[in-house]
Amino acid sequence: MPSQCSHLNFVVTDSPNTAGCEECLARGETWVQLRICRTCGHVGCCDDSKNKHATKHFRDTHHPIVTTVGPGDRSWCYVDEVAIDLQ
C-alpha cells in the first residue's frame, strides 16, 4: 500500500452539488455522514450509512478522492487507500 496519494491531480472541486447525499435525498432516506467527490462534486453518504453511496460513486466513476463534509475535513483516496490532508 502506498504511503502517499498519487491521485492529487483528480482534485478539481470543493463545491458540493447538493446539501445532502444525492441518492438518499432522491429516495427520502437518511445518512450518517457525507463525503464530497473532489473530482465532480457528487455528495454521497459514508460507509457507516446504510447505502454507502460515496463508495458506490467511486466504484461507478473511479473518481479517487473524497472529503468529509462538515467538521474535520478528512480526505481519503480510495485507490491508494490512504488518508490525505488537502489543506
What's the helix and strand layout?
Elements (H helix, E strand, L loop, with lengths): L21 H6 L6 E4 L5 E3 L7 H9 L3 E5 L5 E3 L4 E3 L3
Antiparallel strand pairs: 1-2, 1-3, 3-4, 4-5
Walkthrough of the structure:
This protein has one domain: Herpes Virus-1, CATH 3.30.40.10. With 87 residues, the protein is α+β, with helices and mostly antiparallel strands. It has helices at residues 22-27, 53-61; strands spanning 34-37, 43-45, 65-69, 75-77, 82-84. The chain has a five-stranded antiparallel sheet with strand order 2-1-3-4-5. The radius of gyration is 12 Å and the shape is globular.
Strand content: 15-25%
CATH topology: Herpes Virus-1
The overall pLDDT, averaged over residues, is 93
Name the CATH homologous superfamily: Zinc/RING finger domain, C3HC4 (zinc finger)
Strand order of the largest sheet: 2-1-3-4-5
The CATH class label is Alpha Beta
What percentage of residues falls in helices of 4 or more residues?
Answer: 10-25%
Characterize the quaternary organization of these chains: single chain
Query: Poorly predicted ranges (pLDDT <50, ≥5 residues)?
Result: none
* Shape call: globular
Terminal CA distance: 23 Å
H/E element string? HEEHEEE
The counted number of beta strands is: 5
Based on the coordinates given, report the CATH architecture: 2-Layer Sandwich
Question: What's the story with the biggest beta sheet?
Answer: 5 strands, antiparallel
